[in-house]
Amino acid sequence: MYDHQGAVALNYSPCRYSGSRILFRGPERPLDGAYCAMLGGTETYGKYIERPFPQLVEDQIGRTVVNLGQVNAGIDFFAAEDSVGKICSHARVSVIQVLGAQNMSNRFYTVHPRRNDRFLRASGMLKAIYREVDFTEFHFTRHMLGTLQAVSADRFALLVDELKATWLARMRYLAGRLRGRTVLLWLSDHPPRNGGGGAGLGRDPLFVDRGMIEAVRPLFTEYVEVVASRDASAKGLDGMVFPPFEKPAAAKIPGPAVHDEAAEALAPVVARLMA
After folding, report:
1. CB 123 within 8 A of CB 129
2. Is 124 part of a structural domain of the chain?
3. Is the pLDDT of residue 268 over 70?
């Protein structure tokens, strides 16, 4: 049983690799031997988690695991960041978490190159489709997309099609940059859907369905699908470390019990590929 630890902020021991200006979660891991690199978003980074699944995998297999996760990252960050490419080019195994399709620049809008959840500007095409919308009001992609869906579901479908096509193209590009063996990781509270979606924007990773996973799966050595169990999800905030005012944000992301399940699924696969 985990104990709730909501009194202090967690020390993520930030560090830099390969001369990058980007801070990654530490402690810094050595890059002079055989190692596994893990790329992903908030879950891989392990926000509010003392021992995220990359660290748990390292403990279980006894091999170095480099955590390259970034909070709210999209594929754009990993496709463009040179330091990530350098680290992965020397990694024996690279694990890539499936990320949502919303945090990428595309024909309709541009996101911040490093903080991919930040909306920068709408293209002339998007402004023409949504003439009644003032895009200067938006700072984050999810807020913008939720508003556009509410304004017109039919027009929003055009945007979703573009995001899905962009996701496929970027994933193919990212997979092509990697060397060594690779693992595609689905980590969510639900399995990939067979198209369509639920109410609202849907659940993370946004807009990624089973067909999209199957389209890119051949580009990776292995595919690991982790769907959090009800018991793990029910533990909620237990064991998470965060200041009291960040409780709403912490409640939206997987807790330590889900990280345990992810590590249990990943560890034997990574160990086999590292051998």
Report:
1. no
2. no
3. yes
